[in-house]
Amino acid sequence: MILRHATEADRAALASLDLSDSSTPWLEEVTEIVAGLLDWRADQADEGREVIVAEQDSEVVGVVAHAALVSDDGKAWPFHRYIMVTAVRADLRRTGVARLLVESLLDDLAQRGIQTAEWLVHPANVASIGFTRTVFPEAEETSPPEDRPYTRFMISL
Question: Is 39 exposed, middle or buried (0-12, 13-18, 19+ CB in 10 A)?
Fold first, then answer.
């Protein structure tokens, strides 16, 4: 498994990443997010947006993307990151790809001096809630009113 920054050559692979069951509203949303990640990254370069793909046998099989959080007055929080999305091809779920992506990202962020990271999970996404609770039991879990209907997880690095 190779983890690397996404390039323009990955656009088609991200747009067609098979996440399965597109009838689930939150998976439809994730599919749309993944398909637009390269444009999202280019949109606000000052937020340090990054897209990392997992490649296996020369195919993109997973992705994680993150950015700085920005305050209402437009200033980035220098020691905090927001994980925008983590997605793994449907046939490779429960094989450790997501864990590798997220743990590698968090290790990299910690080495860069980032102190905390957070992400949101739709409460109907039982698999992702379970993944987070199992792999990152130390993550603080909240459901703040401003994030409805999502559950927010925050972890200290």
Answer: exposed
